[in-house]
Fold these 2 entries.
Entry 1:
Amino acid sequence: MTHSLPDASVHVRDLKKQYAVHEKEPGFMGSLRSFVSRKTKYVEAVRGVSFELAPGEVVGFLGPNGAGKTTTLKMLSGLLHPSDGMARIAGYEPRKRETAFLKQITLVMGQKQQLIWDLPALDSFLVNQAIYEIPDDQYRATMREFTEVLSLEGILKKQVRKLSLGERMKCELAAALLHRPRVLFLDEPTIGLDVNMQESVRAFIRDYNERYDATVILTSHYMADVTALAQRILVIDRGELVFDGDLARLAEQGKGGKTVKLKLREAVSAAHLAHYGHDVKVDGLSAELTVPRAEVSTRAARLLADLDVADLTVEDPPIEAVMAELFGGGEKAGEVKEVVSG
Ligand SMILES: Nc1ncnc2c1ncn2[C@@H]1O[C@H](COP(=O)(O)OP(=O)(O)OP(=O)(O)O)[C@@H](O)[C@H]1O
């Protein structure tokens, strides 16, 4: 399909967001005291993030809880004003929220809904058609396409409140993309969905990206979403970008070594395999063990020389393991500076 569409590139330079949080001590006296001396905390949620995305690029935006992902996406879609720095999306400055900009983007938040609860999804679609001034023929064509790719037949006329979570999420995505935006900010679009539904949502995003050459920034706690869709990964930690590169390079950041998988012709005990590596697992004639990254070739050569091996493969650890190793799986909030203003 050919398009004469505007450039869907994303430029972000030194973007920052500081939240001011006014604190109040508990109880009535606390309320009174807060009239006299208000305690304000500043949360440095995003601390100078820079990156560029080419049109049509799909990136996974990862990081531990509270790292600043949602805050960044809200700034890029113009919902939040940055405290400092610059963003340019498809040639527009998001903070201005110009109509032409809003027609080029969408923000989908898996935990928030935009569909009207008591009406069928179709009614919300018509509202969006009016808001985004979608011509009738384009609306019909997009509806046909989405109905097929997302299997929406039969659910569009049901009250949204009566849909399952997965059905509702499919309608949410359709509503959010009905105006055919070129830049997609997807914040946990598959959260809470079962594995099959996650796969349908992924297939839809992939199809949309290919059809419209859309640029996509995707956050997800399900690494399968990221590995299935993104060529490039951005990792944010405590408000700062700590990694920008492809998945394989991210896997190399882990110190946990590589996984060697073996198919053996003769059974070998786990204790014996422990001479070649750690985290040994044996299941009949299949075994796996972890070996240090720098010694993969020498250990593999020793395994092949010493044992009756039918097949040997070397794999990077799953990306979940790398992320858990990098961030310890713990929660990290933005850094807090305490200031008292009277
Ligand atoms: N409205 C707000 N006021 C004050 N602090 C906020 C506000 N929104 C977010 N924060 C704080 O800013 C930091 C970044 O939050 P953000 O929601 O952007 O992180 P996240 O990476 O999306 O996290 P998660 O993966 O848990 O959704 C956190 O410390 C959070 O508590």
Entry 2:
Amino acid sequence: MIYTVTFNPCLDYIVQVDGLELGLVNRTAREEMLPGGKGVNVSIVLRNLGHENRALGFLAGFTGAEIARRLRETGVEADFIEVAQGMSRINVKVNSEGVETEINGMGPAIQPEDVEALYAKLDTLAAGDTLIISGSVPSVLPGDIYERIMARLEGRGVSIVVDATRDLLVNVLPYRPFLIKPNNHELGEIFDVELSRRADVVPYAQKLQERGARNVLVSMAGEGAVLVAEDGSVHESPAPRGHVVNSVGAGDSMVAGFVAGFQESDGDFETAFRMGVCTGSASAFSMQLATRPEVEALLATI
Ligand SMILES: Nc1ncnc2c1ncn2[C@@H]1O[C@H](COP(=O)(O)OP(=O)(O)O)[C@@H](O)[C@H]1O
Ligand SMILES: O=P(O)(O)OC[C@H]1O[C@](O)(COP(=O)(O)O)[C@@H](O)[C@@H]1O
């Protein structure tokens, strides 16, 4: 079974404003409310690609209930801890003149007993399962929760995928995650360098591999992606061509595509990589997250 964990799910309120002006009243030209948060997006895309999975994490309030309802509607098994106080966040994504600006909220007051309840669910994972942990950790949670989860599952044969930034990512490396997916900016921040070309990211991805990551997938938005795999192979691809409609969730979609492609091909890195790239781009080219036909159409072009 594939599991995702989202510590701070949200509703993404995605609006298009023609010519946003700060300090004035702006009106939307288009708006959409979608369930989100990194693991939630991964779960939806996995389901769209035909892979059963269970979404774990914390939800609260009417927004939390709506996230769970929407997830179930897409066929994802939503198995969240319900937090008593506060509400799941609404993250605002403003698209104006092709520039995307994001305002991400804080989230509910998760209590220590809620965290214990999550650990209890994770304790049921067994050999052969895949766990995808992604997204920011709200300030009410222990800052080392990623490591705690990985330490708890160590030696149990669970493949763990981590999509997080900076310290969250660096600190899990000793636990040998199966896959990490920084984007080129996040990878550059770790080493204090600017990485804009695919060839430039390879040595830095390899450094993260030396520190413990088994496979490192670096996404580069319109530049495509690079994979440094544990068998020593290096894969790179430009992004498929298309019109970008909404790139929120493109990175999460790439993770879902990689995991789906890896399972479908019995562990072929090139297949998983291409599926990851095309799934990311298919999401960027539509308002909603990628569907299987959209991904297959792009696979035929690269
Ligand atoms: N502008 C774009 N054009 C084509 N593909 C894109 C674009 N933005 C994202 N993608 C696809 O989605 C993947 C992940 O996007 P990226 O923006 O790098 O992730 P993140 O959201 O994690 O920063 C890219 O590697 C690419 O395949
Ligand atoms: O947990 P964070 O870092 O605040 O990110 C949450 C946001 O990221 C998203 O999961 C999208 O992530 P990506 O664009 O990186 O795939 C949104 O759905 C959500 O609003």
